[in-house]
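Hi F.,

I've been meaning to write this up properly since the lab meeting, where we talked about keeping a consistent format for the predictions we share between groups. The idea is simple: the sequence comes first, exactly as it goes in, then the structure tokens exactly as they come out, then a line or two of notes. No screenshots and no reformatting. I'm using this chain as the first example so we have something concrete to point to.
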Amino acid sequence: MQYTYLTEDIRQKIDKYLNTFPVKEQVIIQALHLIYSKYRDIELPHMEELSNYIQVPLNQIEGIVHFYDMFRVKRNARHHIRVCKNLPCHIMGCKKLLELFEKLTNEKANEESKHGRFYIETVECIGACSVAPAFMIDDDLYDGTKITEEKLNEILSKYT
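Output, unedited:
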């Protein structure tokens, strides 16, 4: 089969995982990370190719993609901002941080990007309670404990 999205490099890495794990379903998350890091989103054609390649039902892959906050399905911005809203981040001021993001980007959280630069999403947990309120831009984790408008603006300016 000809693959459009599963490049030779991605397939080689998936093959290593398939040789490492005894059950092919154990490869799904690692393979999705490879796809996500290349395309910044996981769309249906990506999932279909992965399903075909590792021979697992498409609905298993879709279930994983839609369950985990770490994967974004819809492409509508160049950069993905995730603001944790779990209890430690909530207590430490994630709402104020989120409002600051919305103000500086002129975007609303969990809505399609108007400008195509940033998509802001609230997520349940990013596993960084020690720097609550934690946030990520693409794959970069940030400490939100002493964030100011000026500092956040400086951080955002790195993402063109």
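Notes:
The first strand starts at residue 79 and ends at 84.
Strands lie at 79-84, 118-123, 135-137, 140-142.

If this format works for you, I'll send the rest the same way.

G.
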